[in-house]
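Changelog-adjacent note: as of this version, every example in the card shows the full chain rather than a window. The one below runs 140 residues end to end.
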Amino acid sequence: YTILGASWSSELFDLGAVWATQRNGDAVHLSALVEGAPAIVPVVFDGDGLELYARVNLGRFSLLGGFVDYAPDAIDDRIDTDFRVRYLILGGEMQIRKNGYAYAEWRIDDSRGAQGNEGTSVFTIGLRYGFAVKGLHGKF
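Full-length structure tokens:
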């Protein structure tokens, strides 16, 4: 694995980027026939990926976005030639209590599975609560 990353934060912005490349470091599990019987077969591959993150802090409200693009370098014949993980995240978060937040996020998916299935775009809403636990050695 080789991974390079950088981040930058200010009162208004949080930005981050990570690029990674790996050799024989990832696997997919494919449905196949093995000696005439259905089976799940692991296939190991090389891959490269990029992840970008941005957050704009506007007091009690934040806007966030992200992008992921990950694909194999050398494709095994058993893996679909268009296999990739690629999606965009757009969202927002509002502080409703000291450590409580309401959020909404939309994942716009352009992925393609290892056996040719298309990715699924989703919209989520929810509540998040952040907390810290004090133990023998302080917060963790």
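Structural remarks: The CA atoms of residues 107 and 116 lie 19 Å apart.
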